[in-house]
Structures are given as structure tokens and as C-alpha cells.
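Quick one:
INPUT:
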């Protein structure tokens, strides 16, 4: 896989009894990068090394993903609530010596980052989210197009172990389905990278963990989000939102306008990509993140 994370340290950081796989490199203001589903920190392979020339870059696997710990879920799905997953990442950064930092998240990582800035507003200096609108907005605007494109949101949340049993029957086919047709022509993700993602999903514990992530999104996360939204709690730091112009998010929403209901200061831009923006358009992603986070460095 090229480019790799050459020059990055690779370690496990223990937080609250869990091990979070963490890569770090560079110097300058600290910047945390969070991945999406069904990926891992590997999704930042083309972006993180470039950003390390300007920032101290920290790239992690969320709990349940990659090689981080995958604890068994609880009946209320608090174990995989975005609140718990955000706390992991704040604790990782604190263990590295960073009380405040910037964060960028794609897909599930963006949802974790959104919760992070609500729960830990004094810790986050700037926030970037990639190809998402808030979870609450998504669930309150379900239509046939959303259900077709994001059918996995409803499949993975099914109670019992039906999703796990079906995915475990052929994890390689499931992972391939998440990428097939979800990229613009000429911007497909390399087969060896998809194979690396699939290898993680051959572990039934990770399949269960990632299903739990989606079950939490449809239950306890909505409880937390509705409480904050009703109270008028908003993102209080500068927010950059990026999306793929060919993605469902880009085709369906006025992305900046949606986020303005949840944040005080929003800017946004579209990449020539589908959903997997950092992997399909790494140069665009690197430049946009560098410009946005550099403008707040030392402020």
C-alpha cells in the first residue's frame, strides 16, 4: 500500500481498560483524524503523512474497529454510544499530552467528532466533518432514496444477531459491497486496501462491535442528540464540512445550511468524489484540512 504510514509511531494506548490503536507523527499543533465505516485508520494513508509536515498528526482506530479493543455491547448500547467513543479519543489525546486539539472525522468518525465537541467543548479548537450531516437530521429526514443508499443503517441496527450472522457468512463480500459503485470513475480504492478492511471483519467480535456502533446511533445517540438540540447546545468552534459532489450527502442536502442549524460558524466545500472523500480525493482533502486548521493554529 502506498504511500504508507512511514515515519509514524505505532502503539496501543490504554484508556479505561481499552486499547486504542494509535499512530502519530509530525510536529506542530495536534490534529486528530478519525475514520469511518467499514474502514480503519488506514483510510488516512494518503492524507496523514502529508499533514504531518504542518501538524502533530494522531490517527486512531475507533473502539471496535481496526485493531483497537472491541468490548461486548451492553443492552442500552452505551458501550458504542458516540459519547463513549468520543471519550476514548479525548483520553488518547490527553495521554499524549494534548489538552486541546483539532479533529477531523469522516463518516462514523465525523459523528464521534460531533459528539466530542458537544461533550468536551473546551478541548476542541476546530472541527472538520467529511460527507455527513448530523445523525439526528438524517433520521428525521428518511425517504426512499436515503433508505436505498444507506440501507445498512437499518440492516445493522436489527436486534438479535441476524446482521452478524449474515456478515460472518461472507465478510469479504459484505465489505466489497460497501465500496462497489460508491466512487467516481477513476477514483476507486485499491483492492489491497479493501482486502485489509475485510480482514478485520473476519473477526466476529469486530462485526458485532460495528453493528453495535449503528445500533447506538439509532437509539442512545439520538437520545443524547435530541437533549442537546432541544437545549440549544451547538458546536461552538469553527466547523469545516466537506462532501463528495457525487455522494448521497452531496446530492441530497444543502450541507452547509444543514450544519448551520447545529453550529455557530460553518464553511464547506465539495470534492470531486463519492462518499470516501479522503481516499478518492486525498489531495483535495489534504489541502482543505491544512488550510482550515492552519488558519486557527496558535489562535
Amino acid at each position: 500500500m502506498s504511500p504508507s504510514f512511514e515515519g509514524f509511531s505505532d502503539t496501543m494506548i490504554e484508556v479505561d481498560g481499552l486499547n486504542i490503536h494509535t499512530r502519530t507523527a509530525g510536529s506542530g499543533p495536534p490534529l486528530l483524524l478519525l475514520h469511518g465505516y467499514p474502514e480503519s485508520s488506514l483510510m488516512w494513508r494518503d492524507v496523514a503523512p502529508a499533514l504531518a509536515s504542518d501538524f502533530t498528526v494522531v490517527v486512531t482506530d475507533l473502539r471496535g474497529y481496526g485493531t483497537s479493543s472491541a468490548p461486548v455491547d451492553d443492552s442500552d448500547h452505551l458501550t458504542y454510544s458516540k459519547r463513549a467513543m468520543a471519550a476514548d479519543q479525548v483520553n488518547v489525546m490527553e495521554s499524549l499530552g494534548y489538552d486541546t486539539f483539532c479533529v477531523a472525522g469522516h463518516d462514523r468518525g465525523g459523528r464521534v467528532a460531533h459528539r466530542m465537541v458537544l461533550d468536551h467543548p473546551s478541548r476542541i479548537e476546530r472541527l472538520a466533518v467529511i460527507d455527513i450531516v448530523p445523525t439526528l437530521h438524517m433520521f428525521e429526514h428518511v425517504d426512499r432514496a436515503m433508505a436505498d443508499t444507506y440501507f445498512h443503517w437499518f440492516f445493522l441496527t436489527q436486534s438479535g444477531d441476524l446482521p452478524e450472522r449474515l456478515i460472518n457468512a461472507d465478510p469479504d463480500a459484505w465489505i466489497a459491497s460497501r465500496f462497489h459503485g460508491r466512487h467516481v470513475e477513476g477514483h476507486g480504492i485499491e483492492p489491497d486496501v479493501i482486502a485489509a478492511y475485510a480482514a478485520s471483519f473476519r473477526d466476529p467480535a469486530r462485526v458485532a462491535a460495528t453493528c453495535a456502533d449503528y445500533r447506538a446511533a439509532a437509539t442512545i445517540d439520538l437520545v443524547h442528540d435530541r437533549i442537546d438540540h432541544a437545549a440549544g447546545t451547538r458546536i461552538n468552534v469553527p466547523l469545516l464540512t466537506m462532501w463528495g459532489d457525487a455522494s448521497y450527502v452531496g446530492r441530497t442536502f444543502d450541507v452547509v445550511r444543514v450544519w448551520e442549524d447545529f453550529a455557530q460558524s460553518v464553511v464547506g466545500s465539495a470534492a470531486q468524489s463519492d462518499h470516501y472523500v479522503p481516499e478518492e480525493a486525498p489531495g483535495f482533502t489534504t489541502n482543505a484540512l491544512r488550510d482550515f486548521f492552519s488558519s486557527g493554529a496558535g489562535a
